[in-house]
Specification:
Length: 427
């Protein structure tokens, strides 16, 4: 009975550490009832381990059940890529092998403790092993969480594949060592276990450095694309401005021509002349918005024109313009938001976009809404682009970078059949 209580206490601590690790590494899709979801993961993990403690499942079945519980929970309630969730679910439990093997081997070969007494029972050595392994697990998992929160890049599928393959190899060797250490009192096993752990860390660091290099290359490409877009917007603004100047210059002549036609009774010719004038001159100006900021005017008129060409309805409600210090950043931010909204509206039956810009309680607010053909956040919570050459994901990363520079916040949600991106930053 005493042994059961000791092992049960160890399981409770272990399940709490697992719950803490998984829920802190990934954030929840929905913050509602967060404590209830944490309790669910804790309970499922505890019941699985308790069942094994009582009925002694085979090692492979036991580990597979625990990994399945963590993975299914992560897919249902947590944000993140599924491949990363699967890998973390595996790491969550395999990490115990990396910790337990060296500790057991240390107690067995260096301190001379009997293997049977440190793998079961209620001896002081067994309790010390449990305390040390659970403490190490807690410290290592929390360190992983801290590193994950500070990282400035995301592994691609190929990099995750490399990590998984090397992990599977090391895990397989670890299971072989696990049988060796339980059947053979060999100090070399300790050394091999530590070397395997070091090898896994080195491989992870190499892949990490490669990923950082890839990120820098991607950032260069993003900057180049943004510069080309800004150049295109400026050229469009200049073209519109020159067209307006020409129309203003010739406006007197147009009025005189129309007046002459009306005076001479050529009403049908005058109407035809005005229709041609509207088609050739006025409608081609592409001037939809006129604010106090030339940058915002250029961006909005360019993007609204692009939307109108795709038969996308655009409504704007603008009650503030950014100051000169921030207008380039805000212009780039709005351009990316509208690009994403236009892309999302393509092939919809009744596409529509709404833009709101207003100040309230010391905050500038920019809200872009676009119609939905189906829930985006449900199928793609991380807003990853589904096109090989698409820039939707790059645009959202650029938006978040710009908002951070403005000391603002980004809120993304769905409401009344529309996808909404709301930006808030101090005036």
């Amino acid at each position: 009975m005493t042994e059961f209580m000791v092992e049960n206490a160890a399981i409770l601590i272990e399940c709490f550490c697992i719950m803490l690790f998984i829920t802190k590494y990934f954030s929840f899709k929905n913050e509602n009832f967060k404590w209830l979801k944490c309790t669910l993961l804790f309970s499922l993990s505890y019941l699985t381990e308790l069942y094994d403690l009582i009925f002694h499942l085979s090692e492979s079945v036991f580990v597979l059940l625990l990994i399945s519980v963590a993975f299914i929970f992560s897919v249902c309630f947590l944000k993140g890529r599924n491949v990363e969730k699967l890998l973390l679910s595996i790491i969550t439990y395999i990490l115990f092998a990396f910790i337990n093997l060296p500790v057991l081997s240390l107690f067995n070969s260096v301190l001379g403790c009997d293997m049977e007494s440190i793998t079961g029972g209620t001896s002081d050595e067994r309790i010390e092993v449990l305390i040390i392994t659970k403490l190490l697990y807690f410290l290592i998992t929390q360190s992983i969480v801290v590193v994950n929160r500070k990282k400035e890049y995301v592994f691609c599928a190929a990099e995750w594949f490399m990590i998984i393959i090397t992990s599977v190899i090391v895990i397989s060797i670890s299971f072989i060592l696990n049988f060796m250490i339980l059947s053979d009192n060999n100090p070399a096993v300790t050394v091999i276990s530590l070397l395997l752990l070091i090898m896994e860390i080195i491989i992870f660091m190499i892949i990490q450095r490669i990923s950082k290099a890839n990120k820098k290359n991607t950032e260069s490409q993003i900057l180049s694309m943004q510069l080309r877009q800004l150049k295109h917007d400026n050229e469009t603004a200049i073209k519109n401005y020159n067209s307006m100047i020409n129309v203003q210059h010739d406006f007197k002549n147009y009025i005189l021509n129309i007046n002459t036609m009306v005076q001479t009774g050529k009403i049908s010719e005058a109407v035809k002349y005005m229709d041609e004038l509207l088609d050739r001159k006025i409608n081609n100006l592409q001037t939809f918005v006129n604010t106090s900021s030339d940058v915002i005017n250029a961006v909005l008129n360019s993007k609204i024109s692009a939307a109108e060409e795709k038969n996308i309805s655009v409504r704007t409600f603008i009650f503030f313009t950014p100051d000169e210090k921030n207008e380039l950043d805000v212009g780039n931010l709005i351009a990316n938001l509208l690009d994403n909204a236009i892309e999302a509206c393509i092939n919809q039956s009744e596409p529509a976009i709404e833009l709101y810009m207003y100040s309230e309680n010391g905050m500038n607010n920019i809200i872009v809404k676009n119609t939905l053909s189906g829930s985006v956040l449900l199928s793609n919570p991380e807003l990853k682009t589904s096109k090989r050459t698409g820039l939707h994901g790059i645009g959202m990363r650029s938006v978040k970078d710009t908002v951070n520079e403005l000391n603002g916040i980004t809120d993304i949600y769905e409401q009344d059949g529309m996808f909404v991106v709301a930006i808030h930053y101090p005036e």
